[in-house]
């Protein structure tokens, strides 16, 4: 077996590439720019491709000879105000078309699409199951919804491959330390170390589903090969909701450092609650959280504190 990861230069794409390589599975990793990427002990099992994921020739080269392909690429900054959203739609839907073309051309059997459980549902009343109506309120969420629909329709009408969709909640983990988009957990940890204020939108009672990166990677790997995942959609999360304030308090507990909270106005695209049901995923994986939130938080703090300077003793 050989896998392709389109968008391997990102947080989740990099973690997925490393996980496959550590299992001895060859990986074709496509990223926009590999300059400055550190080399580790898995490098001999990773073939790196560089270029625009929207170029069919590039994706065809990256997917050729692969059994499973993962599409994690995204151009633009999710939930950013003032962005050129028409260009964002054009770039990202074009990249998906290129990925489908590359998969068909390369003989891929399963294409796994990374979607966003944190945005496609909009506001959730309790944990959202995969069959509830999608009501995204952000352009990012709308693009992910369109991507899901486009892939499912293509496969149903003309495709020779199968697909799986992973609606991932709010992932966090050590790899976000050097990522462009760090997320609440790592951003707050870095602010704690730097003794800088953390910006909290509204009053911090907004509830989200936070899931550790290793648990996301484990789910993605299973969705690429499980017969139960063919042409299906799965939530990938913890199944539990935590408020922003809860997460900040947990970070203070794990780090032993106090956070200075600075409250600012909320954003138009924010919702009060977004939590995912993971019952369907559990039927494929067993326990969806092998590591879990608590252990994941400690592992992330260890990585963040190491990256920032001398090691600290954990409480």
From TrEMBL:
Listed InterPro entries: Epimerase_deHydtase (IPR001509), NAD(P)-bd_dom_sf (IPR036291)
Pfam family of the protein (one): Epimerase
Name assigned to this protein: NAD-dependent epimerase/dehydratase family protein
Organism in which the protein naturally occurs: Nocardioides immobilis
Residue ranges of every copy of the NAD-dependent epimerase/dehydratase domain listed in the record: 3-237
Superkingdom of origin organism: Bacteria
Family: Belongs to the NAD(P)-dependent epimerase/dehydratase family.
């Amino acid at each position: 077996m050989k896998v392709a990861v389109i968008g391997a230069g990102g947080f989740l794409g990099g973690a997925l590439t490393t996980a496959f390589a550590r299992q001895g599975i060859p990986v074709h990793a496509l990223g926009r720019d590999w300059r400055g990427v550190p080399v580790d002990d898995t490098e001999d099992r990773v073939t790196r491709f560089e270029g625009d994921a929207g170029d069919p020739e590039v994706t065809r080269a990256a997917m050729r000879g692969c059994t499973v392909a993962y599409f994690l690429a995204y151009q633009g900054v999710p939930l950013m105000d003032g962005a050129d959203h028409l260009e964002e739609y054009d770039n990202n839907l074009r990249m998906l078309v290129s990925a489908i073309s590359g998969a068909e051309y390369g003989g891929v059997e399963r294409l796994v699409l990374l979607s966003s459980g944190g945005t496609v549902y909009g506001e959730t009343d309790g944990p959202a199951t995969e069959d509830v109506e999608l009501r995204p309120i952000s352009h990012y969420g709308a693009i992910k919804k369109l991507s899901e629909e486009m892939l499912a329709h293509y496969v149903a009408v003309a495709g020779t491959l199968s697909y799986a969709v992973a609606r991932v909640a709010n992932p966090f983990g050590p790899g976000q330390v050097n990522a462009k988009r760090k997320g609440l957990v790592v951003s707050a940890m870095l602010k704690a170390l730097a003794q800088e204020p953390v910006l909290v939108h509204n009053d911090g009672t907004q509830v989200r589903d936070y899931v550790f990166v290793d648990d996301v990677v484990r789910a993605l790997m299973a969705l690429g090969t499980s017969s139960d995942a063919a042409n299906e959609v799965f939530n990938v999360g913890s199944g539990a909701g935590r408020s922003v304030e809860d997460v900040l308090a947990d970070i203070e507990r794990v780090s032993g450092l106090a956070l200075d909270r600075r409250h600012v106005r909320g954003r138009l695209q924010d919702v009060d609650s977004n939590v995912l049901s993971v019952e369907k995923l559990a039927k494929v994986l067993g326990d969806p959280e092998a590591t879990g939130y608590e252990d994941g938080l400690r592992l992330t703090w260890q990585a963040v504190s190491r990256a920032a300077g001398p090691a600290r003793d954990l409480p």
